[in-house]
Design a protein that fits this description.
Structural class: mainly alpha
Strand content: under 5%
CATH architecture of the largest domain: Orthogonal Bundle
Largest sheet: 2 strands, antiparallel
Oligomer: single chain
Radius of gyration: 32 Å
Number of strands: 2
Number of domains: 2
Strand order of the largest sheet: 1-2
Shape: globular
Number of helices: 13
CATH topology of the largest domain: MetI-like fold
CATH superfamily of the largest domain: MetI-like
Length: 324
């Protein structure tokens, strides 16, 4: 009798177990699918960046490098020249002139902008200065100003006949030379408008670094007598070294890629005797005036190599320099 009851109970329970197993088996693909999407979701969220970088960054870089190996004008199939374009640069007087001008511009701009921006950052960060945000805004304002407007203002100010600066200097019997036709004024003119436009940007970065300095260190330095210029040289600058190195590399990249300022002032010809010709305007001239796209691509990669080498030297020097 007991055995019969056991058989009846097993018979009744068996369909329920079968249905439950079927439900579990049918749910397992859904679980596997959910696991798959959980693994894929993070990559889907970051994929737009990589897709855009691939389309507008990596592929153009590869194509431009291939272009630098061809003599190509954009229409004809082009001729494979290998490193011929790079060797031609060494024999090109315009490239040598542009390279020298860019190096002179770098020498004039980098230390001046770093020092001037640091001084301005220290001043506007001082607790003795009121209306700090107003002064910061005025100093940063040239970054937001259109370069065309700025060039027109500079042209009017320094005009040889009716310029404001010319009128002021004439009162002291000083003749104002024309910076657009005077060869030795080309680099100072480009450096001047570059400093006027971008010093505020560098100042903001250095100001952010100053505001992260620990107050305890500064107070201890003041107790030891490190105030004013002494505190700036022996305390502030060593602590700010990473920020200064970063801004130096940033300015170096900007100077070697400089185009707007020399183009507005001197065009693609570079002014008198090519005194205002830089690598950026030379590359533009070869690409969009002479349609030497392969040659222009070679210039671009040489500029990239120079920036990379200069940045490595600066980082290496900064890591071994002793500011104490």
């Amino acid at each position: 009798m007991q055995r019969l009851l056991i058989l009846v109970i097993e018979f009744l329970i068996m369909p329920a177990k079968t249905i439950k197993l079927k439900k579990l088996n049918s749910a397992s693909p859904l679980k596997e699918q959910n696991r798959f999407w959980k693994k894929v979701e993070p990559y889907l969220f970051v994929s737009p960046f990589f897709i855009l970088f691939l389309i507008f960054g990596l592929i153009p870089l590869m194509v431009s490098f291939l272009m630098s190996l061809f003599r190509w004008q954009g229409v004809n199939p082009g001729e494979m020249v290998g490193i011929g374009n790079y060797l031609a640069l060494l024999r090109d007087p315009s490239f040598i002139r542009a390279l020298i001008n860019t190096a002179l511009l770098w020498i004039a701009v980098v230390p001046t902008m770093i020092g001037l921006a640091l001084v301005l950052a220290v001043i506007v960060n001082s607790k003795l200065i009121q209306w700090q945000n107003v002064y910061r805004g005025f100093i940063f304002l040239p970054v937001l100003t259109s370069l065309v407007v700025a060039s027109l203002v500079f042209t009017i100010l320094f005009d040889q006949r009716n310029g404001f600066v010319t009128s002021v200097l004439s009162n002291f019997a000083i003749e104002m030379p024309d910076f657009r036709t005077t060869r030795y004024l080309a680099i100072p003119a480009i450096a001047g408008i570059t400093l006027w436009r971008w010093t505020g940007y560098v100042m903001v970065i250095q100001l952010a670094g100053l505001q992260t300095l620990p107050e305890s260190v500064l107070d201890a330095a003041k107790l030891d007598g490190a105030t004013g210029i002494k505190g700036l040289v022996h305390i502030t600058i060593p602590i700010l070294r990473p920020v200064l190195v970063f801004t130096t590399v940033l300015i170096t990249i900007g100077v070697f890629n400089l185009f707007d300022e020399p183009f507005v002032l001197y065009g693609t010809k570079g002014g008198p005797g090519g005194a205002g010709l830089v690598l950026g305007t030379l590359m533009y001239r070869n690409a969009f005036e002479y349609f030497k796209l392969g040659y222009a691509s070679a210039i671009a990669y040489v500029v990239a190599a120079l920036i990379f080498a200069a940045s490595l030297v600066q980082l290496r020097f900064a890591s071994t320099a002793d500011y104490t």
